[in-house]
Amino acid sequence: MDALNSATPLRAATLDDVPALVALVTRCYRGEASRAGWTTEADLLDGERIDPEVLRADIARPQSRVLVAEDEATPIACAHVCRDGDAGYFGMFAVAPELQRSGLGSRILAECERIAADEWRLPALRMTVIEQRPELIDWYRRRGYSATGETRPFPYGDPRFGLPKRDDLRFVVLEKPLVVECAA
């Protein structure tokens, strides 16, 4: 299966996918392997990017979906979308470093937006992005996301979110309004 093919299926993750998804997300953001793509956080953080127990809880809870794209049964991309109060929340977004810039990430983001708007009827999708990632923030801006002006502290001292290499990390909150169709 060609990862660039728009027909590459997306499916909901199961608990059996957890080890492979943890490995994929970590490879996409941390360590030397992540440097093959443009989304690396290797200069900002070490350690795993997603805790297996957090991922299991995300898969199991209602109005939460972890999407997976595969190539020959190997995960090559994923993302998490869920209801978070009055909006959707988007996170755990990863595309294999060698496939970044292929369009697969845009396709997964669009599907998460569709789920939030069409299935859960939510008016917006939010996310947090490390402020020191301007190239990633710009990528989201090109897809209609805007900074809300809100920032959130980085969870220093909690290794489930990585091992910081800097003491100035924080998150910015981005949001995109969604078009929710009126029910007929």
Largest sheet: 7 strands, mixed
CATH architecture: 3-Layer(aba) Sandwich
Strand content: 25-35%
Q: What count of structural domains?
A: 1
Order of helices and strands: EHEHEEEHEHEEE
Pairing-aware structural class of the strands and helices?
Answer: alpha+beta
Low-pLDDT sequence parts: none
What characteristic shape results from the CA principal axes?
globular
Please tally the helical runs, counting DSSP H or I stretches of 4 or more residues. 4
Q: What is the overall pLDDT average?
A: 90
CATH topology: Aminopeptidase
Distance between the termini: 38 Å
Cα gyration radius (Å): 16 Å
Q: What attributes does this structure have?
A:
24% helix, seven-stranded mixed sheet, alpha+beta, 184 residues, two-stranded antiparallel ribbon, globular
Description:
- With 184 residues, the protein is an alpha+beta fold.
- The termini are far apart.
- It has helices at residues 18-29, 52-60, 104-119, 134-141; strands at residues 10-12, 45-46, 64-71, 74-84, 87-95, 124-130, 146-153, 163-164, 170-177.
- It has one domain (10-177): Gcn5-related N-acetyltransferase (GNAT) (Aminopeptidase), CATH 3.40.630.30.
- The model has no long low-confidence stretch (mean pLDDT 90).
- The longest helix is centred in the middle third of the chain and has 16 residues, at 104-119.
